[in-house]
From TrEMBL:
This is Uncharacterized protein. Keywords: Coiled coil. Residues 94-136 are annotated as: Disordered. Residues 116-133 have a biased composition (Basic and acidic residues). Residues 28-87 form a coiled coil. It comes from the Eukaryota.
Length: 206
């Protein structure tokens, strides 16, 4: 009787030990699979950001080339106007010199310098932009658009949309939704916002 009881106890212990080992093995596999999938998603997101960053840099280089051409053209036109003005002054009758001159304030800060400094500040803020916890996507998108518009004034809207879209997706808290939206290659911030919100809704339904 005692021997039979001991055998049953031993069998129960052995069965329990085997089940625990199997469960540990299953947990280990699940963890490895999740970690692998997470690494793959992060690598995919990094690759896509790199591709978009490359396109953006190419766009910036092309824009800089066009700006240089425009500056050269404007410089040439300015020189021509200066020469014309010099010739006009040379062959025209002398004008009366005003008896009084308006005093000019020295070392007056230039609004253009201030504006340039503000633009660079907005660009840095846009680069480091992140969605705040519990911040609605609409408000986050609006904040992104404001920084992009203020950071790149006198810039084509297509360029602003590219910069704003990249910053918006890069700073999204929901990386899965951002990756899904990036796969659809949105060409505007509104489309990126729409894709992200749609994916978040689908995740909740599932």
């Amino acid at each position: 009787m005692k021997t039979d009881y001991e055998h049953r106890i031993a069998a129960v212990k052995q069965d329990f030990t085997a089940k625990m080992k199997n469960r540990e093995h299953d947990y280990g596999q699940q963890y490895d699979n999740l970690a692998k999938r997470h690494r793959e998603e992060m690598e995919e997101m990094i690759n896509k950001f790199s591709e978009r960053e490359l396109k953006l840099n190419q766009f910036i280089e092309e824009r800089d080339k066009q700006m240089k051409k425009l500056q050269i053209t404007m410089k040439t036109e300015t020189e021509d106007k200066t020469k014309l003005q010099e010739m006009t002054e040379k062959w025209s009758l002398p004008k009366e010199t005003p008896s009084m001159k308006i005093a000019e304030t020295k070392n007056k800060p230039s609004w253009q310098t201030k504006k340039k400094y503000t633009d660079r500040t907005r660009q840095r803020q846009l680069q480091d932009l992140r969605q705040l916890p519990e911040e609605p996507f609409d408000e986050y998108a609006e904040r992104t658009q404001d920084l992009a518009t203020d950071g790149f004034p006198r810039t084509p809207d297509d360029f602003i949309q590219i910069v704003a879209t990249d910053a918006f997706l890069k700073g999204c808290l929901d990386k899965k939704a951002a990756l899904t939206a990036m796969d659809k290659d949105p060409d505007s911030l509104d489309k990126a916002l729409k894709y992200v919100k749609s994916d978040v809704t689908n995740q909740k339904v599932i």
